[in-house]
Amino acid sequence: MQVFVKEKTLKKRISYLKSKGKTVGFVPTMGALHDGHMELIKASKKKSDITVCSIFVNPTQFNNKEDLIKYPRTFERDKELLKNEGVDIIFYPTAEVVYPKGLDLSVDIDLEGLDTIWEGEFRPGHFKGVVQVVKRLLDLVDPDYLFMGQKDFQQFTIISMMLKKLKISTELVVVPIHREKSGLAMSSRNVRLTEKFKTKSLVLSRMLRYIKDNYRFDKIDEIRQYALNEIIKEGLKPEYFGIVNGNTLQEVKSRKEKYIIAVVAAWAGEIRLIDNIIISK
Length: 281
Ligand code: PAF
Description:
Blueprint: E1 2-4, H1 7-19, E2 24-29, H2 35-47, E3 50-55, H3 65-70, H4 75-84, E4 89-91, H5 95-98, H6 119-122, H7 126-141, E5 145-149, H8 153-165, E6 171-175, H9 195-200, H10 202-214, H11 220-233, E7 237-245, E8 260-268, E9 271-280
Parallel strand pairs: 1-4, 2-3, 2-5, 3-4, 5-6
Antiparallel strand pairs: 7-8, 8-9
Helix pairs in contact: 7-8, 10-11
The structure holds pantoate.
C-alpha cells in the first residue's frame, strides 16, 4: 500500500497504472473509518483493479467551525484498517494540496434545490463544499468508479447530478447502508451515543422499516406522522422525516411515483443521526 500526499506523485502513479490498463476505484473519506467505510472499500476492490482511498477532512463542507475542530483525526488507525482491507493507494493531502492558493476551484452548477432541502436546510452551504471537494478529488484521482454510501443519500444524489451536469465519465456506485446488528446505521458518531440513546435510537431504523412495510397500504401522510410520533415518544428530537422521490428529493405526492426513499435526521441526546430506506426502486 502506498501513501501519497502530493498531487504530482499521486497523478504520476495513477497514470502509470492506467497506462497498464488498470481500472481505478475511488473511495473518498474524511477518515475516522468504520465498518461502513470498509464496505465501500470492499465494493471498490470487487469492481476495480486498483483501489484509492482519500482521507481529507474538508473544511469547506463544515458550516460549524467547532465541528471541524472536533472532527476525529485518526490517521494511523485508519491506515492500518485500509492496509488490512487491501487498499492500494491512500491519498492523504493537506489543505494546501487540495486548495492551492490562486486556483479557482468553485464549481458553478445549479443543483436545482437538491442542496437546500432536508440536510441542506440544517447545514447551509454543506453540499456546496461537498461538491467542490469531490470535484477536486476526482480531478486529482481520475477514477473509473466512485463509491459512495447510501447512508448519505442526499450527498449521493447531488454528486450524481454533478457528474451528469459536468459530463464527468466516472461511474458512481452506491453501496447499501451497513447496519450494526441492532439495526443502527453505521456511523463514526455511534461510539459517542450514550447507552440509553444507543437503545432509543433504534427507533429510527424500526420506523423506516415500518414505512417500507406499510407504504403500499396506508395513506402516506398518516404513516409518516405515525413514525414521527414514535421517534418523538422515544425521546429523540427529529429534524426531518420525509418520504421523497429519490431523484428530486421532493416529498412524494402520489403512490404512482417510482424510486421512493424515506429519509430521517434526529438528535439522540447530543448526537445527530441520519438514516434512510429505499421503499421502491
Ligand atoms: O461522506 C464524506 O465522508 C464526505 O462528505 C466526502 C464525500 C468524503 C467529501 O468530503
